[in-house]
Amino acid sequence: MSLPAVQRDLRAFVAERDWAQFHSPENLAKSISIEAAELLEEFQWGEPRDDDGVRDELADVLTYCLLLAERLGVDPLEIVRDKLAKTREKYPVEKARGRSA
Question: Residue 42 gets which letter from DSSP?
């Protein structure tokens, strides 16, 4: 399945439920943070026992990210590529390879 197909499915899902009225950028950003915390909770005591729980929480994070990108009118793939280009400049391979900071 392609990203545009997923985005269409998300738009249809939200429209069917009339939820767009609740999807302000602020609310979506809050939801990303909440779902990211729930994803982190899966790892709270070490490796998760429930891979399905990790997948579900990761899906929730990605869903809200895609909804926020759409609300802001940005292409999620484009902004990831743009940020990757900036990060490449900030952390050139010769200085960053094998280092976490």
Answer: T
How far is the C-alpha of 67 from the C-alpha of 26, rounded, in Å?
12
The SS3 call for residue 74 is coil
The whole-model pTM stands at 0.91
Q: Could you tell me if 64 and 22 are in contact, meaning their C-beta atoms sit under 8 angstroms apart?
A: no
Angle (CA) 5-32-15 rounded to 5° is 45
Residue type at position 11: R
What does the pLDDT look like over 3-46, one tens digit per residue? Answer: 999 999 999 999 999 999 999 999 999 999 999 999 999 999 99
Contact between 14 and 67 under an 8 Å Cβ cutoff? The reply is yes
Give the integer Cα–Cα distance in Å for 54 and 41: 9
Q: Which runs of consecutive H residues, i.e. helices, occur in the chain?
A: 3-17, 25-41, 51-72, 76-90, 93-96
Q: Please give the torsion angle defined by the CA atoms of residues 24, 25, 30 and 35, in that order, rounded to the nearest 10 degrees.
A: 100
Spatial distance between the Cα atoms of 68 and 84, rounded to a whole number of angstroms: 19
